[in-house]
Amino acid sequence: GKVAHDLLGIVTIVRGYAELVPMEPSKKLREEHCRRILSACGRMAEMVNAALAVSREESGLLVLKKRVNLAEFLEDCLAAQTVKAKNKSMVLNLELGAESATVTIDPGCVQRILSNLIENAIKFSLPTSTIKLSARLIADSLEIEVEDDGQGIPAADFATLFDEFQTGTTRPTGGEPSTGLGLSIVKDLVQAHHGVIAVRSEVGRGSTFSVRLPLDDSNIRP
């Protein structure tokens, strides 16, 4: 069910770029949209393969680490959400504290984490809002934050915020569907990466989700 939830999110991205291709007069941008469609299809295939591997191993989520350029990786994560943000006239910003860093992470795992967090920020923020993705290196960890200036989370919702099928009292601002699975998926993926997740929020002032992941892969089974 969780894999299906994330696959549906990527299908929505593919559909959005596919709709843009025939309307785009620029050949360069048409090629860029097609590249993102192919990239998203590759992510879907990786997710299915990972789910099959998990089923075979019967050992929970597998974390398969690779070395990636942090700036390029985060730019791709943010760009994948461009169509959804554009549909609500939102601005997506990237802020890096270590632009040239190369880090060892599971890119598929972290991409799913950020996809869910950014999609949630878009879903629950008002049109014309700004959403910021930031990252910095702290000792032997990578800290990534997704910050919005949306509706915020009521204190009463915090106790069940990361539970499955908990939609909370805050409603999407564009009539988007909400299954209540996104944040529970994020929690599982962060824990599979031996990381921690935290949230700061104030009603009417927005929310910031922080994910800290260890960069030492000695405790991660290959």
Descriptive account of the structure:
This protein is of the alpha+beta class and 222 residues long. 43% of the residues lie in helices and 21% in strands. The chain contains 6 helices and 7 strands; from the N terminus they run H-H-E-H-H-E-E-H-E-E-H-E-E. It has helices at 2-20, 27-57, 70-79, 82-87, 107-124, 182-192, and strands spanning 66-69, 91-96, 102-105, 130-138, 141-148, 196-202, 206-214. The chain has a 5-stranded mixed β-sheet. Strand 4 (130-138) and strand 5 form a beta hairpin. Helix 3 packs across helix 5 and helix 5 (107-124) runs antiparallel to helix 6 (182-192). The longest helix has 31 residues, at 27-57. The radius of gyration is 17 Å and the shape is globular. The model has no long low-confidence stretch (mean pLDDT 84).
Query: What fraction of residues sit in β-strands?
Result: 15-25%
How many helices? 6
Structural class: alpha+beta
Spatial sequence of strands, sheet with the most strands: 2-4-5-7-6
Question: How would you sum up the global shape?
Answer: globular
The N- and C-terminal alpha carbons lie at a distance of 25 Å
Produce a short descriptive summary.
The chain is an alpha+beta fold and 222 residues long. The protein has helices at residues 2-20, 27-57, 70-79, 82-87, 107-124, 182-192, and strands at residues 66-69, 91-96, 102-105, 130-138, 141-148, 196-202, 206-214.
